[in-house]
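[Meeting: bench + compute handoff]

Bench side (C.D.) handed over the final construct sequence. Compute side (W.E.) agreed to return the predicted structure before the next meeting so the bench team could plan truncations. Sequence as handed over:
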Amino acid sequence: VDHTDKNGMTALHRACLGGASELVLSLLEARPQLSLRNNKYGTPLHCGVISSSAEVVRALIEARAPLDATDQFGNTAVHVAVKLDRRQILRTL
């Protein structure tokens, strides 16, 4: 479940980026590494913030995704939510 493509993307990164909450929940059952960073967006939590899916973000938080993990620019998920003006996501975080 933690297999990455050439861009460092796992199935979980892709599901989070697409806002596919049911798929995210299924993938979380396999206990993937939630701190894996891809080459562009960061961790699955960063991808969930980018997708603007509160359900995805909530599922990742409940699965204990690290809130202090950073992307390649040093941004946490909260930083990304602020930069993208994701107010609902900020309330979830």
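W.E. noted at the follow-up: Residues 11-92 form a domain with the Serine Threonine Protein Phosphatase 5, Tetratricopeptide repeat fold (CATH 1.25.40.20). C.D. will use this when planning the next construct.
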